[in-house]
Amino acid sequence: MRQGWRWYGPHANVPLDAVRQAGATDVVSSLHHVPIGRAWTLAEVTDHLALIETTPPGRSPLTWSVVESIPIPDAVKRQGAAARSEIEAWIASMEAVAGAGIQVICYNFMPVVDWTRTDLDHVIPTGATAMRFDQDRFAAFDLFILARDGADQDYSVADKERARAVHAAMSDAEIAELTTNIASALPGSTTEPLTIPAFRDRLRAYAGIDAAKLRAHLVGFLQAVTPAAEALGVKLTLHPDDPPRSLFGLPRVASTANDYAALFDAVPSPANGMCYCTGSLGVRADNDLPAIARRFASRIHFAHLRATKREGDGRSFHESAHLEGDVDMLAVLRELVAEDRKRAAGETIIFRPDHGHRMLDDLTKQVSPGYPAIGRLRGLAELRGILYALGAL
């Protein structure tokens, strides 16, 4: 297995030397400056590649191995294969990526909002901070800040009472912070930042789109792009929903093993693969992570390894240390290593330590939520320890 690290580019606060010092060899990156929906050019991709792979004298080489992500425009999620111009632009971006020699692309199909958290710096007992999803704070936003059409029907009486109390206790600054956390797109998001009125409008645009229709749109997208991916030698890896359940009354179609099975049955192309994210899938108690890895082993070309801890209400959770929480990382890595040993050298699974606590010196620095250097360094070191014990290093 190849050790990766997500890098947000030359203006990020974690430089490439930090990737080297963490012990990673492979970089996971994207063209974050390109607007969603515009086709990437080969020149843009090769310029970014040169930033990563031009090795200064005396430094360890790095390889840009995974594109995370080429965002899928909202029109594709709402219209499926009918969004022809958007899909053609996406294929053009994939061609540019393949032209630069990169063969793994991660993407997601979450409508309106990407990965979602209510708190970005929740203080944990060590004094470090973690990202958190607080169900009551989320409901307070949905019911009383966004005031979504039909939201009242999605919560029990007790849910609404708790959310009302949470909202009543919030200051204007806290409301603004919560709104930013949920609506303004977290780092790496593949959806656009939204004002509250724009958020409501975007949700209304999904009226009549249920899980079956959204899945059909995803299948239509895959049927359009996988022939090109096969021809280019590219593996497409679908990231799970985060969290893996409906938000804002919207359907989600990459939350369970059955969701992935339906997609692989509909589009059996070997180019149609999975980004195996233990943190996202692990939020659901009914997701058996080792079993999912075993079942879809041949489809896993990229892995996000992190752990989450479900809280007492069963819906709230926070990001735990990589070897804590609800993910049995030893069992997961046993499955991934067993699959990886069957593969040719050029097809080995690339993984990265996903997210990390804000800790030590990073507590006093401006860092991207979920992507501080030190917390991810700890996570990669812990994962590497398991791999060493399994004889995989």
From TrEMBL:
The name this protein goes by in its record: Mannonate dehydratase
Pathway(s) the chain acts in: Carbohydrate metabolism; pentose and glucuronate interconversion
Catalysed reactions listed for this entry: D-mannonate = 2-dehydro-3-deoxy-D-gluconate + H2O
EC number: 4.2.1.8
Keyword Transferase: no
Coiled-coil residue windows: none
InterPro entries in UniProt: Man_deHydtase, Xyl_isomerase-like_sf
GO biological process: D-glucuronate catabolic process
Entry similarity comment: Belongs to the mannonate dehydratase family.
PANTHER family associated with the record: MANNONATE DEHYDRATASE
Functional description taken from the UniProt entry: Catalyzes the dehydration of D-mannonate.
Protein keywords: Iron, Lyase, Manganese
Signal sequence segment: none
Cofactors demanded by this protein: Fe(2+); Mn(2+)
